[in-house]
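subagent[fold] <- orchestrator: predict structure for attached chain, return tokens only, no commentary.
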Amino acid sequence: MPGTVARFTPGTIHRLVNEGELRITVLMQNSGLPEAGDAVLTLPPEYLTDPETYAAATTIPADAPEAERERIARARRDLALEGYRLLREADGPETLAAFHRAAADLVRPRLAAWRERWRAGAAAAAAATEEQLDRLERGDVSHLADAVVRSEQPSERGKFGMCGRLDVYRGG
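subagent[fold] -> orchestrator:
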């Protein structure tokens, strides 16, 4: 329904089906970690065994022709749907727990870089908010005189993302 806001916490496995009119606006205060690879696609277990196998099934080369990137994106989507079906049809929680363990193993090598991305982005924004609240509490409103409005054009348009095409805004 138009105007609906959906929020997902880590570990939420979900699928959206676009029958032509679905338009989604996603705002991420997490410094773009899902597009940086912290979200693991629900591929069948044989693709989750190691980072190289997973990357071979999910990476879309930026320098490939448009038609090839689209073909790879669709193949990746189909694999994710196949793995999603396996999770949905599983008896008991062990299949999902195994997926979560495999996903964590896949992303563990990138945690240090993601932590730095988070520190420079979402954590810095939260710290700035805390400072502003502290100033207001002390009666210091001087920071309000520094208010600005910023606008931005996308740094990338039509990029293949986790769940389809996206325009990338860096913010700041």
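orchestrator: received. Logging for downstream: The mean pLDDT is 85. Strands lie at 156-161, 164-168.
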